[in-house]
Amino acid sequence: MSAIIELGGVRKTYRSGAVEFEALRGIDIRIDTGEYVAVIGPSGSGKSTLMNILGCLDVPTEGHYVLAGEDTSSLDEAELAAIRNRRIGFVFQQFHLLPSMSALRNVELPLIYAGLSRADRRERAAEALAKVGLAERLDHRPGELSGGQQQRVAVARALVTEPALLLADEPTGNLDSRSTRDVLGLLDELHDAGRTIVLITHEQDVAARAGRSLVIDDGLITSDRATAAAPAGATS
Ligand code: ADP
Ligand code: MG
């Protein structure tokens, strides 16, 4: 398997005025293409900070991050934005959909940056929405959809550019248990189809869906283990 993510010696220090806070204190992680990895840890442990770095939304203070063979530490803002657009899909706890736009228009948005024609955008967006089970809801605005449906629109938006990596930060944190099952089922399907997924959560039962879980505590990885049944022939 080839690595899609390699983090080495990653530290992140936040500075506000004279106060410094080290949110990540030396993180080494390798994630291979096609893995489904949960990152679990208590509130304030550094999960979102790690996600921001994995998503090229922020850069480490120290250490290196190689994404799909490309060392991101040498990239400037514009290059990071380009890599983000090309390689990464994001799903957030708060959905972050534009309330005045239909589901279809929300999902089309990332394709505008990809330079597709209007007709191609609509077709790709409609396909992505059909994949998440919302073919009948293209013209609905977020306010006319349930929380679970809104999060499925967000997943469609994350996938419409066919990114190599899907990053989800507490994607079920605002959902009831039925919608949670729904969205987790969707992530399972995406993983089965070969997507690499990194899911951040503070709930053990959500993490249990992934094949591997990393525990982060106080800015350090304290555990890294397989959570699914071992493949046939493997012994432990
Ligand atoms: P989690 O997502 O696990 O709850 P975060 O990564 O959001 O944790 O935050 C980790 C720590 O870093 C927390 O103590 C938080 O207060 C601090 N922190 C996060 N973002 C900033 C920031 N922009 N400036 C200063 N401190 C921050
Ligand atoms: Mg967080």
From TrEMBL:
<dbReference type="GO" id="GO:0016887">
    <property type="term" value="F:ATP hydrolysis activity"/>
</dbReference>
<dbReference type="InterPro" id="IPR003439">
    <property type="entry name" value="ABC_transporter-like_ATP-bd"/>
</dbReference>
<dbReference type="InterPro" id="IPR017911">
    <property type="entry name" value="MacB-like_ATP-bd"/>
</dbReference>
<dbReference type="GO" id="GO:0098796">
    <property type="term" value="C:membrane protein complex"/>
</dbReference>
<dbReference type="GO" id="GO:0022857">
    <property type="term" value="F:transmembrane transporter activity"/>
</dbReference>
<dbReference type="InterPro" id="IPR015854">
    <property type="entry name" value="ABC_transpr_LolD-like"/>
</dbReference>
<dbReference type="GO" id="GO:0005524">
    <property type="term" value="F:ATP binding"/>
</dbReference>
<keyword id="KW-0067">ATP-binding</keyword>
<keyword id="KW-0547">Nucleotide-binding</keyword>
<dbReference type="InterPro" id="IPR003593">
    <property type="entry name" value="AAA+_ATPase"/>
</dbReference>
<dbReference type="InterPro" id="IPR017871">
    <property type="entry name" value="ABC_transporter-like_CS"/>
</dbReference>
<feature type="domain" description="ABC transporter">
    <location>
        <begin position="5"/>
        <end position="236"/>
    </location>
</feature>
<protein>
    <submittedName>
        <fullName>ABC transporter ATP-binding protein</fullName>
    </submittedName>
</protein>
<dbReference type="GO" id="GO:0005886">
    <property type="term" value="C:plasma membrane"/>
</dbReference>
<keyword id="KW-0813">Transport</keyword>
<dbReference type="Pfam" id="PF00005">
    <property type="entry name" value="ABC_tran"/>
</dbReference>
<dbReference type="InterPro" id="IPR027417">
    <property type="entry name" value="P-loop_NTPase"/>
</dbReference>
